[in-house]
Structures are given as C-alpha cells and as structure tokens.
Design brief:
This is Zinc-ribbon 15 domain-containing protein. With 206 residues, the chain is α+β, with helices and mostly antiparallel strands. Helices cover 25% and strands 35% of the residues. The protein contains four helices and nine strands. The relative contact order is 0.12.
Length: 206
Amino acid sequence: MIFYGFKSTHLRTAPLPIGTNCPACATPDAMKASVYGRYAHVYWIPFFPFSKSAVAQCEHCQKAWEEKTMPAQLQPGVRAIKQSTSFPLWNWAGLGVLVLALVGAFIAGRYHERDRVAYLAAPHAGDIYTIRSMGDSTKYSLLKVLSAKGNTVEVAANEYEIDDRSPLSELNSPEKYTKTTESLTVLDLQIMHNKGQLTDVDRLTE
C-alpha cells in the first residue's frame, strides 16, 4: 500500500509596500502577505511542489483575506511577494532521491554488462549462467560451470525453472543440478547471449 498525498507549508511572510493601508481599519503600513506552498509527498517524503497561495493580513485589526476575496488595492503587492518567493529545495527531496537512484541503477547496469561480457569471454569454474527456457520465454533456469579449459566449458543444467528472471537465490543449490554434464564452447555461450537465451552471468568464485 502506497501512502501519498499533498501538504502545505509556510514559505514566507513579508510586508506589503509602504503606503498600503488596511482595507478594513485603514491603518497604514500594517499589511503583510504570507505565502504557502503545496507539495506532493509519498510516504511523507516531499516529492515535488506544484502550487503557491497567499494570504494578506493586517497586523493591527487581524483582518485577513485569501486571494479569491482580496481587495484590488492589495493584489499587486501580494502578487509581487508571491512571485518572488521560491520553493525550498527540500520540497524536491523525493524527486532528487529518485533521480539519484535511477542514475545509480544505470551506472550499476553498465558495470554489470561490462562484467557479463568479460565473464563470457573468459569462463571460470563456479560461474552461473541464467538462461531463458526454450519452450516458455517467461521461465528461467541456471547453468553451472564445472570446469573451463581452453575454449571448452563443462556445465551442469539446473533441473528447475521459475518465472523469475533472477532465479539465482532460489535455484542455486547443489542438489538442484543434474549429475550429467554438457560441453559448450565460448562461442556457443556468446551466441546464446546474443540471441537472448543466456541473460545473465554471476561469478560466485574468483
């Protein structure tokens, strides 16, 4: 369940220009404008601001006006204060974290792809290949490298398939691999990778 919503926060209070009288009590230079911002939040973390509102109030008689009912003589000063008020950076905190997470994931993905290409070019005993099922593209299984000598790689197939493209944690148990082995070449592995049948490589031992 995702908790999200909108909240308001006080951004700024500033006096209206000198010479502005209160429309209610006529007290000079007693008017101030308070600006409020609204922002969207997810799990109470501010994500992004989207609107501002303002209230004008007389410090003498305490009479207040929202923008919809504000007398005309107050509107220019209030509008100027509102336009010059910026949203604080913390209103963008959630969006900033999301952007950083996406950039981090992209960088990690690039490094992982680089490692995957290197691992396929030089297989080691203990490498685990994630493979897509030939009969059902939504099913995934594993191949375990038992030995790698020259251009030949001896692998054992996992006897199970699951509908998880990252099956390593669930399927990588010794008892789940067949006792028989199969010989593949480095070229075979690269062809399988290029066709999308071999989708990932994990090097568990160095």
